[in-house]
Each structure stands twice: as C-alpha cells, then as structure tokens.
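Section 3.1: Structural characterization of target chains.
Under the original work plan, the team committed to producing a structural model for every single-chain target entering the pipeline before any wet-lab resources were allocated. The record below documents one such target. The sequence was received from the expression subgroup and is listed exactly as submitted; it comprises 240 residues.
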Amino acid sequence: MDLNAWIDRLLADPDMQRMGHNQRPEDGNLGLGWLYYALGRIVRPKQAVVIGSWRGFVPLIVARALADNLEGGDLLFIDPSLVDRQWRDPERVQAFFARHDLDNVRHVPMTTQEFAASDEMAALPEIQYLFVDGYHTAEQARFDYEAFAPKLVTHGFALFHDSMIRRRSRIYGEENAYEMNVPDYIDELRGDASVEVLDVPFGTGVTLLRKRGPGSDRPRLEGIEGRCQVRADGSERVTS
C-alpha cells in the first residue's frame, strides 16, 4: 500500500494518535514517527527490537520501514501485555499486524528480564535498531538497553522514548502507580564516553544513542557512491 494511504489509515485510529509521539491526522503527520521510520530506512536493519508499546504505534512504524527496504528485515516486539489484554492472544496479535499489511513482526509476551534469560536471546543475531519504550523507570530502561547492548552493532541506534519527562504514571492502575524517571538514566549515559546521546525535544521526548568505538566515526557509504573507486588522478570509477 502507498505510504501516504497507509499513514492515513493508521492515524484514523484514535489510539494511534496518543502516547506522546506528536502525531497529527489532519495532515497525515507521524510526528516523531517520521524519525523512527527514517532511521529504519537509513540504517536498513536486518534485525530490529522494540520493547514495549501500548497499542503498537512504534512497532508498526519500524516494521513498515523494514518492509519498505529492498533488504527486508525482521522486528522482534517484546511486550508481556501487563497494561491490559492487548498483546495476550497470539492470533489476535498476528491479525493486528496483518491488518496493517505487515508480516515481519515476531511478538514475544515476555518481560525483558524473561527474554534475556531465554534461549531465544542467546540465538538472536546482531541488531541494528533498538527501541526502548517499556516500563518507564531509569532502572528498567538501563536493563532494557544493557541486555541488548552487546548485540547492537557500531552503526546501529538505540532510542529511548519518554526520555525527557518525569511524572507519575497510572497506566497500570492507581494501585500500581509509579514515577517515570527515564531521564535519570539518560543523564547517566551522558557521562559515558563510550556512547553519544542526542535528545529530540518533541512529544514526550526521544533520545538517540550511538555507540562509539573502532570504526564508529567512519560513515557507511552505500548505493552508487559506495561502489566508486578513486583513481590515482582523483577521478572516480564505479565498480559493479
């Protein structure tokens, strides 16, 4: 389906207009979703991971980006459905993504702690795109990132949503209300010389993280330019 038509259909659902991504259906505007989609197209991940989603906005956007790449790509979506029954029924989950013309999403109804201890984690290949949007405490954001950091490649990105707000959340009910404090972990990361972090101050905020290390400052050149060889006289030759 044409991307614009796909977006219009997506944003026609009121649930897809919420949760702090600055979406706007009046002009088919994904808000921060454009960033999530763009990174999927730029990085071209073979494997992406999304942790947590209330109604599926982020996994839908990331999965669509992967599907639009010539290389394709798979999305692992981790959510134990603790808020309600949204992600409890495997057939319903599969049908949900199919309604949006996507068949590249694998959902696992686990916490990150449970998945990290599983054989599936051990078998997971390297990842190029990680989106952290689960339980919004500094402690859990730290666990979510550090569990997958060894598998995140140098030119990959990790994103943290709700990374610029501190407030009390009652999404799990009044009896389970808790303080959202992901910015505390982001502040820790700013002091870590092995990573770069950048806040994008829209919606409830999203923070991008990139690893530093050997080769991290060398850009990846792909497409026609990536197949160019520079001759001794400075001219270029395109290789097959």
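The first strand starts at residue 47 and ends at 51.
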